[in-house]
Amino acid sequence: MPSLSAVIITFNEEKNIARCIHSLKDIADEVVVVDSFSTDNTVEICRQHGAKVIQRKWDDYSSAKNFGNRQAAHDWIFSIDADEAVSEELKKSILLIKGKGGNYQFNRLTNYCGKWIRHCGWYPDRKHRLFDRNLWQWEGTIHEKLKSNSNSFVSLLKGDLLHYSYESIEQHERQTEKFTDLSAAELFSRGIHPAIIKQYVSPVIKFFHCYFLKLGFLDGYYGFIICRISAASNFLKYKKLRTLYRK
User: Fold this and answer.
1) pTM summary value
2) Binning pLDDT at 50, 70 and 90, where does residue 141 land?
3) How far apart are CA 68 and CA 239, in angstroms?
4) Could you give the CA distance from residue 94 to residue 108 in angstroms, rounded to a whole number?
5) Tens digit of pLDDT for each residue in 38-89?
6) Domain 4-166 - what CATH class?
7) What is the pLDDT of residue 1?
């Protein structure tokens, strides 16, 4: 039976990490945490829950995750974020296929300010997180994705990966500022120079797509907020990119 290593990257995740590690009970044979020198109690909590903790200076998401995969004792990897947890249904699905190994994806359900979001383009939000590290590597500095050196088949498992995203709208807005900085820098490094009209048209298209086509209005007030911030994110990304070119 293939043994399973769960790999988590952390920085100041004391509010989330215990829930994450506890949800891996019964499915993971070890938990490896790559911590970017947290200043809260993250490391202590991880060790209290039996995780192997390695501290490493932050560079980017893919590098941190690939580093964690290399530190694992087993080739079969479950990559999970600190603010995520395995649902009971997903846990049962993983236990059923644990004797087989293989590559798997599953749906992710996000909790936003206490509400589960099932529209806005946020669900099913399918994620490939269970894989053989010899066949797959993380690529991308921001929205990292697994890339394979072979034509490996990826199956879908039943059950949701639970994502506890933002506790407040203000937290979402702060994260948007951070990610649009990174996105603009990445586009700049690739030499992408969009027309000014895209800065103003893309947010409108984004809001229409998320709120109407992806039925964001069915998620009520928070559905509207999510779609509004998603649209603002597009505006900020291109605004910051144009600022980089002016500098």
Assistant:
1) 0.93
2) confident
3) 35
4) 15
5) 999 999 999 999 999 999 999 999 999 999 999 999 999 999 999 999 999 9
6) alpha beta
7) 60
